[in-house]
Amino acid sequence: MKPRSLAARIVAGIVCLHLLLTALLVALGVYVARTELLSAFDVSLQAKALSVRALVRYSEDASLQLIFDSSGLPPSSDPTHPDKFIVYLSDASILAQTPGWSGLPADAKPSTGDYVRYLDGNVPFRAVTLRDVPILDREEDVTVPVAKITVVYAASRLGVRDRVWRVGIFLGAAGLLLLIPMTSLTVWAVRRSFNPLHDLADRAGKITVRQWSFDAPSEALTTPELAPLTEALRMLVSRLRDSFARQRQFTGDLAHELKTSVAIIKSGAQVLLHNQRSAAEYRAGIEELLTDCERMESLVERMLRLARVEQWSDDGARERFATIEVAATCEAAISRVTVLAAAKNVHIKFDRTGRVQLHADPEDLELVWVNLLDNAVRHSPPGSTVDLHLQRDQGGHATIQVTDAGEGIPAGEIPRVFERFHRGENSKGRASSGFGLGLAICKAIVEAYGGSIRLESAVGRGTSVSVELPAESLEEVVPALSPD
């Protein structure tokens, strides 16, 4: 299908509306013209019937018979189709009539008042009837009751119909003639109205990865229809600029981490090859190299998992996971951190309120709890307790909270704790064995499952991390569970 521009659609729509308006005006004009012409025609028909009534009079002799003076008949409005009349006496006998016309046909259709319409062949006629009207001739010296007659007068409506057609044709032609300049004015006005949009598109097209400035035209900002689009473009450019900046920062940090790991492995290998060493020294050096390789492998694995989570989050593939028990993933995470907690003499306390189930990959949730517990244990003083609390509220949300009594995080670093490769001053160095990806991965996984994560901390008072996830309805998952 060939695409059409928005301006062409608007112009076509306006032209169609003009044609529709012209048709309505023609119909209205024809209706008004027909009504007025018929009204004038009825007045003329009534006047002619009265003229025929005036032609009936008494004879001048003593018999006083009614006679009809045909010399004063009114002229026909249509010479091609002459008017017709008939005069009845009170006893229904015919006093006078148009030759060859015997009165109204049986199929005459009544109209308003005393008027009827009928067809004589293909010619439309309209007739008026004056019933039992007294004649106008008076004999003052004769005491005779005034005679009454009935006059039927019919005339062709072809003239009215032709004039109505002429009115309709004139109005239609006038409307079509006005369509030409109106269409030209519409095209000009539409193009002029689209100038701010074209200007906006031109300026948006100048945005590149090297040029992020977006100076919106003032006319677009003051146009009500374009202001939301302009603001949306400004926000989009701002978000893209921030996204590219974070991506560049992420790429640089990842390259730095990989370069550091490779440099360590390379330097360790060079040291081993520099001098002749014993088998034990070679073995110890190779073990250190393996440790460094495992550290780099861990970095790559974390990056792959982060990329995987972001990918299926964008694809909306959460529904393919089975329903799991969140408490089971918490217990699995605790078992993985138990050795570290025992080494630091830190106790992990787990309590839960109610059952919490949702569609998820258990490895994802377990990784989140492991990262949170690992951070809490590493920064907790010996002899302290790390609390892991799981509960479900009435709104169907699950809250998992990890709280420690460690040294806390400075207020200035809290907004950046979920950034990739961000490590606090106390966590930097090879000895920490961290990359600054743990909380970033936690945030990505939690948000991928439609949840949220927040951190609260104060120096010297410990840290609390809360994760909120949309739990599944128990009525939906209970049938899928195996009986105890």
Annotate the secondary structure layout.
Blueprint: H1 6-54, E1 56-58, E2 66-68, E3 84-89, E4 94-97, E5 109-110, E6 115-120, E7 123-134, E8 148-156, H2 158-193, H3 195-205, H4 218-222, H5 227-274, H6 279-315, E9 323-325, H7 326-343, E10 347-353, E11 357-359, H8 362-378, E12 385-392, E13 397-403, H9 438-448, E14 452-458, E15 462-470, H10 474-477
Parallel strand pairs: 10-12
Antiparallel strand pairs: 1-2, 3-4, 3-8, 5-6, 6-7, 7-8, 9-11, 12-13, 13-15, 14-15
Helix pairs in contact: 1-2, 5-6, 6-9, 7-8, 8-9
Which key features would you list for this structure?
484 residues, alpha+beta, Beta-Lactamase, Helix Hairpins, Heat Shock Protein 90, 6-stranded antiparallel beta sheet, 5-stranded mixed beta sheet, 18% strand
